[in-house]
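Review form for a predicted model. The reviewer records the input and the model, then writes brief findings.
Reviewer: anonymous (R2)
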Amino acid sequence: MRVRCLLATLAVLALALAAGAARAAVSATDDSGQQLTLPQPAQRIVALAPHITEQLYAIGVGERIVGTTEFADHPPAALKIPRVGRAHSLDLERIAALQPDLIVVWGSGFPPALLQALRRLRVPVYVNEPGALDSIASSLERLGQLTAAPQAAAAAASFRARLQSLRARHAGRSEVRVFYQVWSQPLMTLGRPHVLTEAIALCGGRNVFGDLAPIAPQVGVESVLAAAPQLIATAEADAKPSGALDSWRRFATLPAVRNDLLVTLDGNRINRHSPRMLDEVAVLCAHIERARGKA
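Model under review:
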């Protein structure tokens, strides 16, 4: 009898401790440098970017997302989440009606005026802006802090291990000149601050416009020809070519054209700062290795 009473008491204490942990205050610093403190782990989250939605699912709290944006389509369960935003626009009334206890927003995905409008909803706003591959792992950890996510530490560790493996595999290789085309008309590429410039370097490549300061500079065809890229890459949804690179084929002596290295990557993975990004970085590395073999 005493044993049963003791076990019952221990069970009650365990439940009380678990409930207390669930109500405990949590805090994290976002990518704008602002520290957020919540009275308890977030349970109703608005995720304002596809990559943010993916990050939250990766740390095991995807079911807590009550609103997201257009094109948030991974994993498949994300397709069932109500849409509260699209490119550069948000439905503020609908966001407020969802009664979130945390809004996670892509900092550069929306105009500053919209970010200010979000803050006026009097809901904690976490600015997510991974600027480097390593910062994806730290983003998983910090979102894990705000949600007490059970899988955050493991997800971050797995990402770091995969990233280190890619770096080690391609370290010390001969350099390959890469032109990354963001847009064809006007012709735009990526500059020094972009995470894909880092990804190209990780693979042993060199972004031929990687010294330019703007994140997405406009360049001329003549400049590309002078750089003589060995690989020309772009990204489209599901890696389906749209013909955006076809105009380069008229320059038959260009190394990338001569060696049939006009590559379309999967924009759903390479352009999203989520764990899946490394899957497509590995594909990029394989193409750069192929270009290296034809040098």
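Findings: The radius of gyration is 23 Å.
Further findings: Residues 9-19 have pLDDT under 50 and may be disordered.
Recommendation: see findings above.
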